[in-house]
Structure formats: C-alpha cells, structure tokens
Design goal:
The protein is of the alpha+beta class. Helix content is 37%, strand content 9%. It has one domain: Glycosyltransferase (Alpha/alpha barrel), CATH 1.50.10. A hairpin with a 4-residue loop joins strand 7 and strand 8. Helix 7 crosses helix 9.
Length: 560
C-alpha cells in the first residue's frame, strides 16, 4: 500500500532497513491474544518505598485495574467530570482535524504503523517530513488511544522495538544497543513488490546527533497504551521487557558524573538544532524522570528486572532532590542567587555550582513575578540557563517531578506572563529569544533559528496538548480553554502550521510546514482531554509520597 503522502518522497540516507524475512517477530507478537479489562478505579502509582516489598509483577501489581476513565484524578478541582463527555458541542474544525490526521497515516504491509511528520503537498522539498518520528508520533498515538483505536499504537511500539535491535553506526562509531531511532520511513519497491523500513538513528540528522528522547517517549507511550487499553500482555512480553532494560542501561550506567542528571549534546531532543541546550537540559531530565517512573511500574521483578528496579528507585530519589533543589527558580530563589558569594570551597557552600550573580540576564528580573516559578533550562558548573522551556516544565508537572506547590507556581507564571508565553498562539517553546551577538555565538548564525522563530522563541501548537494536560492536573482547566480558543481561531485557516513566528506568535513561521501532523494531533488530544479529563490518566503520574521534599520553598509563601 502506498504511503498516504503520495509522491515526491526522497530516499533516506540511512542504510538501516527491515526486509520481509526480518518481520517474523512482529507478526508473532501481533498474533498474541489480548485481554479485555473492565473499567474500574485507577491504580495509585506505587510508592518507591514499596519497591523492596513488592511481590512481583502480576495481576495484583502496578497495572491492576488499569483501564479506568475516572481514576487517578485526585488533583482535579473544579474540572469537568468524565460523565460530561457528550455535553460539549464539537468545534467545527474537529472533523477537519481528524480527516487531516488520517491522511498522514503510514501503512506497512497493510497495517497502520504511524503518521508522517507533515503532509504538505505545497512544499517542493520533502526533506525528512515524510518519515515517522518517534517523538512526533506521541500526540498522534494519544489521539488514537483516546478515540478507541489502539492497534496502530501497538504496531508502532512493536516495530520500533525491532528497529532498536539493529546495529547502529554513525561513520565508524557504533551506538549503544538500547538507542531508539529518531525516525523511520516505509520504502516501496514497485518492481519487486516489496516494502522495507529504513531507520535513522541520528546518522542523517542535522549535526548527526542521536535522539536521547526517543527511548523515553517509547517507554512513556508503552505505559499510556497499557493504561488506556488494559492490555497487560504487551508490556509483559520478553521483547518489551528487554527493550526497556536496554534503554535504561544507557541511562543508568555508572561513569564520572557527580550529578544524577543526564549529560547531553545540543540537538538531542525536540530542539534538534544548535540552541545552547547542551549539558543538562530540562526537557531531557523531565522525560528521563517520567520514563523511569513508567518503567518502574512495568518492569517485572524477575532476575533480570529486579536489579533495574533497585537502580531506578535510587536514581529517582537523587534526581527529584537535585531537580527540585537546583533547577527550581522563583522570586525568593532568584533573590538568593542575586546575593550569592562566589569561590566557596567546602561542603557547606551555598553557591554549589559557583554561579556568578552577574550572569543573571536583565530580562529575568522583570519577568519573574512575586508568585510563580519554573524549572530553568540548564544547570551545570558555573552556568545556569535561565530561559523558560515549555516542554520540560509541562512534563515536570505531569510526571510529578514538580511538587504540587511547584506545579501551581508554574501555572501561576503562565497566567501572570500570558502575553510572553502564550501571546496569540500557544505555546512558546522557549522564552525569551536570543538575538544579536548572543544568537551568533549560541546558534552559529543559524538562519532557521532567528529571534522569535522556530526553536528560538517560536510558538508551537503541538505543545497545546501538554499545556492542557498540565492545566487539568493542577485544576486550572480555564487556562487550557482560553489557549484552545486562541488556537481554534487560526489553525485550520492557516493550514495547521508547524510553528508560528513573532513575539506574540502572530505570523505563520517563515519555514513552517503546513498540515504538520503533530499540530493537528496536539489540538485533538487537548480537545479530548478537556472534554473527558479521565484521559489524563494515561499520561499523568501522581506524586510519590516517598520522594524527598525540596529544600527550597516556592515564592507563593513569600510575603512582603
């Protein structure tokens, strides 16, 4: 079957492919019987303190009663009840969005396998927008799960699992066994009548950077699939268990690190171009935290899994403490940093990273409200990146990396700085934009990441689903409704652009693709979650009471 995007596709530079003989394992897994689970109350996520006492993984374990439209929403206050699913009149563009999403479907040997990045027939140069990206498919997968169509998600999870097992090389260097692809493409040989897959693990990417986030998104999506369908058999398969362990092996290996955070190169996540996010970017740390918590629920406590469970529990304690203590910024903490002494040498040092107070950018003093806060972009020796990054902060809320107080403070910030972070099209991927000399140094004069464009302060509609999920979890659905109303005024009329440019997000991006799949899917997921908040359970984790509380207090408790 031909790819939905039709002609004009260019062959991937990757030499990694899947032939018919390699597909036996997928067929075998797809043929396994699946179970149906009646709708019950949702489970409470296992506390880390219970890990050592667990009796193993089974019907009485973490996934017991997983399929539940009304569970896991204890933090919802004043949001629509799940019984109100049919009380909302659908917006006229919802039907168009579903049609556009279905046009992006990719089929492999007759089975739906994913969605391409964009179906922009007006663009002469396809580049890699005709490929299925792991991170891009997540909102599409959630839309199909929420619509009762889980088969495509199951197919995607299994196929990418097989791709993980391939040998991966960039030039003459071999990547880690657990690395997941950034993307893959269905290739059609009309003469032979054969379909094959070609995967890109970073060897064709801009800058040749492997996607650190792909494996995390895969684990998060596997949990979402299980939570939505109640099908425990997929996560229990030896193949999925091994896939999770391989991903975790890359992240939990011991080395020279003195921090529990992951050290990453620039361009290793959604911001896949040079933007100064090298080091310990908030997006990767939040996804890492969430993937660890999801894996903790799904790993079996057998001989192979038990060691990983223990490592995860230890890492989560250290990671939550580190992030909540050193990445968190509110009015009081900003004032403390402003007064830091430097060159402190002892275990009692307050300025642990030797940050120079003069490095605090001028814009931050006016941007930071008295009530509100956020996780800053990066923390490393003598360096703090004080920029706001939306994805990392939204995932911090959904994964409960942020405490309830910190989650509320992030929402306070969005409300207080609506013009800056939302503007006329939600949501700024980062704030503020870098420009002039700083832009030349940080981006290397990147013509695509000019100020208030693309990754450099551009507005990305796909982030609407993450904002909506965070709003529902924190009991602020009115913020999501307001943002969705803004998006509905423009998205269909503008052809579902990839991103918007300008300080307020007023203009369609100068190089934005039209009919960008994750812009479409992000809107649909946001709409469905707001109409039926029970969907939040598949992508949200409750706070673990065993986690260490942060040392620093949020600014809401600060009084003049």
């Amino acid at each position: 079957m031909e790819l939905a995007v039709g002609g004009g596709m260019r062959r991937s530079a990757s030499h990694t492919s899947l032939s018919e003989s390699d597909d036996f394992e997928l067929t075998r897994l797809l043929s396994k019987p699946r179970i149906n689970v009646e709708r019950q109350r949702s489970f409470d996520d296992r506390s880390l303190s219970d890990v050592s006492h667990s009796g193993g993984y089974g019907r009485g374990g973490a996934f017991d009663g997983m399929y539940s439209p009304g569970g896991g929403l204890r933090s919802l206050v004043g949001t629509p009840a799940s019984s109100a699913l049919h009380s909302f009149e659908p917006h006229p563009i919802v039907g168009d969005a579903w049609e556009a999403l279905r046009r992006s479907l990719v089929f492999f040997r007759g089975q739906p396998l994913g969605t391409v990045a964009a179906v922009d027939h007006a663009s002469e140069e396809v580049l890699n927008y005709d490929q299925v990206f792991v991170r891009d498919f997540v909102p599409s997968a959630l839309a199909f799960l929420m619509n009762g169509e889980p088969d495509i998600v199951r197919n995607f999870l299994l196929k990418t699992l097989l791709l993980q097992g391939w040998e991966k090389k960039v030039d003459r260097f071999k990547l880690g066994e657990g690395a997941m692809p950034a993307s893959f493409k269905v290739m059609h040989d009309a003469k032979k009548g054969v379909e094959t897959l070609h995967a890109d693990f970073g060897e064709s990417a801009i800058g040749r950077v492997a996607p650190v986030d792909s494996g995390f998104w895969w684990i998060i999506l596997l949990r979402a699939y299980t939570k939505s369908t109640g099908d425990l058999t997929l996560a229990e398969t030896p193949e999925c268990q091994k896939g999770m362990r391989l991903i975790l092996s890359l992240c939990l290996s011991e080395g020279f690190d003195t921090f529990p955070t992951l050290l990453c190169a620039d361009g290793c996540c959604m911001i896949d171009r040079r933007m100064g996010v090298y080091g310990y970017p908030i997006e990767i740390q939040a996804l890492f935290f969430m993937a660890l918590r999801c894996a903790l629920q799904m790993l079996k406590h057998d001989n192979e899994g038990k060691e990983f469970v223990e490592k995860i529990a230890t890492r989560l304690h250290a990671l939550s403490y580190h992030m909540r203590s050193y990445f968190w910024l509110d009015f009081q903490q900003l004032n403390d940093i402003y007064r830091y002494k430097t060159e402190e040498y002892s275990h009692t040092a307050v300025n642990k990273f030797n940050v120079i107070p003069d490095s605090i950018p001028d814009w931050l003093f006016d941007f930071m409200p008295c009530q509100g806060g956020f996780f800053i972009g990066n923390v490393s020796p003598a360096r703090m990146d004080f920029r706001w990054f939306a994805l990392g902060n939204m995932i911090a809320i959904l994964s409960s990396l942020a405490t309830p107080e910190q989650s509320a403070a992030i929402m306070d910030l969005i409300e207080e700085r609506w013009e800056e972070l939302i503007g006329e099209m939600p949501l700024k991927i980062c704030y503020p934009a870098i420009e002039n000399h700083e832009w030349r140094i940080v981006t290397g004069c990147d013509p695509k990441n000019t100020r208030w464009s693309y990754h450099n302060g551009g507005s990305w509609p796909v982030l609407l689903w993450l904002l909506t999920a965070a709003c529902i979890k924190t009991g602020r659905p009115q913020i999501a409704r307001r943002a969705i109303d803004l998006a509905e005024r423009r998205l269909l009329k503008d052809g579902w652009p990839e991103y918007y440019d300008g300080k307020l997000g007023r203009y369609v991006g100068k190089q934005a693709r039209k009919f960008q799949t994750w812009s479409i899917a992000g809107y649909l997921v946001a709409k469905m979650m707001l109409e039926d908040p029970s969907h939040l359970g598949m992508i949200s984790l409750e706070e673990d009471r065993a986690m260490l509380k942060p040392v620093l207090k949020r600014s809401a408790s600060w009084t003049n």
